[in-house]
Amino acid sequence: MNNKTINPLQHTVSILNRTIPIPLLIFGTIGNLLNIFILTRASLQKNSCAFYFLALAFVNLGCLWFDLFARLLSGYRIDPTTWNSIVCKFRFYITYLSLYLSSFFLLYATIDRWASSSTNVGIRLFSKIEVARRIVLYTVIFALLFYLEIFYCYSTVEHLFRINCYCRNYACRVFNDIQFLVLYSLLLSILMFYFGYQTIRNVKRIHPTINQLRSMKKKDQQMMMMLRIQVIFFFVCITPSAVSKCYTALTYNINKDLLETTKENFFFQISVLLLYVHYSSAFYIYTLSGRKFRREVKRLIRTFHRSHSAATSPSTVTRPSHILMIYQRNQDNLVRQTISNRYAYANNSIETSR
User: Fold this and answer.
1) Alpha-carbon Rg for the chain in angstroms
2) Closest C-alpha to 222, from 41, 44, 28, 61
3) Over the stretch 146-179, which tens digit does the pLDDT of each residue have?
4) In sequence order, what DSSP letters do the residues of 124-190 get, joined into one string?
5) Buried b / exposed e along 280-317 (16+ C-beta atoms within 10 A)
């Protein structure tokens, strides 16, 4: 009876790891690259919230191609992390680093919107682009140092839950998994919802007095809407994975049969794929929720189309400009001739009057 349950679950996990990562990688890579192109445009370069979104796009790309791509390879049994301990360590170092930075950049963006809507001048200073750049730099440096423990904790382990690249140190595993649940899923989500709620309160509080809601830049309002939707999506996608990892770590010393272990692995694999939906969907969330963002997407497409047209048909571009130059030259000559004739006519009139 157990084999009838175990085999389908294992087969389903194998199929999911071979199929689901492909569209996530394709759409996630395209979406995050488009985010980078759009958020670096001149109209958004001075917006601090857009800068956090830009940093988020780079981090999401790292997470997709260092962990999700390895998961895809594992579905075809060609994952190098299963036999190379150095690759294993480096994969999880980048993965945890990306998860940490992605979560905190999203939190910073939420705090930034709260600060920008505050009536306190000192608090509003937080929403400056210079402050955002410093915070991102310091956070990256801290994360690079903090997760050096991954190189000690992770290594290749044979025949363990069908997973070869694993954290064999129990203390490390409990620390990382509880940290993932408490810090990323619960604490950061609570902070994001809190500052989002405070932002709404700030806007409503000042509306009857100085009508800041109407005078607030549309760009900032749309950034706020994009942020709210992404925070909700973040919580929905990351919580199942955090719960699964924490449960596995806390029950590691409990004797489990193969069926229970397979069920745990099945739920974990599903939750991880759901987690990567979050890292692949940012561009599409922005496009659906932000009118300003959609406008920038259209401008980017038009710019690309014009540059492509100029590259493919240069004669079409240079010929009108050449005709225009000839026309302009003829017009200048005509104006000069007209002025000369009027000057000669004036001189003749003066001579006649004399």
Assistant:
1) 30
2) 44
3) 999 999 988 877 655 455 677 878 888 888 888 8
4) HGGGSHHHHHHHHHHHHHHHHHHGGGHHHHEEE-TTSTT--EEE--HHHHHHHHHHIIIIIIIIHHH
5) bbbbebbbebbebbeebbeeeeeeeeeeeeeeeeeeee
pLDDT tens for each residue of 33-75: 988 988 888 877 888 988 998 999 999 998 899 888 988 888 7
Read off the tokens for 317.
Answer: 């571009």
Tell me the one-letter amino acid at 138: Y
Residues 276 and 17: beta-carbon distance below 8 Å:
no
* CA atoms within 13 A of residue 352's CA, in its CB half-sphere: 6
Alpha carbon distance 223, 300 (integer Å)? 18
Please provide the distance, in angstroms rounded to a whole number, between the alpha carbons at the two ends of the chain. 126
> Are 184 and 103 a contacting pair, CB within 8 Å?
yes
Burial 4-28 (b: 16+ CB within 10 A, else e): eebeebeeebbebbbebbeebbeeb
Counting runs of H as helices and runs of E as strands, what totals does the chain give?
Answer: 16, 2
CA nearest 55: which of 136, 156, 164, 172?
Answer: 136
Alpha carbon dihedral 111, 238, 62, 29, in 10-degree steps, equals: -100
pTM: predicted TM-score of the whole model, two decimal places: 0.76
- Give just the sign of the alpha carbon dihedral 100, 105, 110, 111: positive
Q: What amino acid occupies position 147?
A: Y
Contact in structure between 67 and 95 (CB atoms under 8 Å): yes
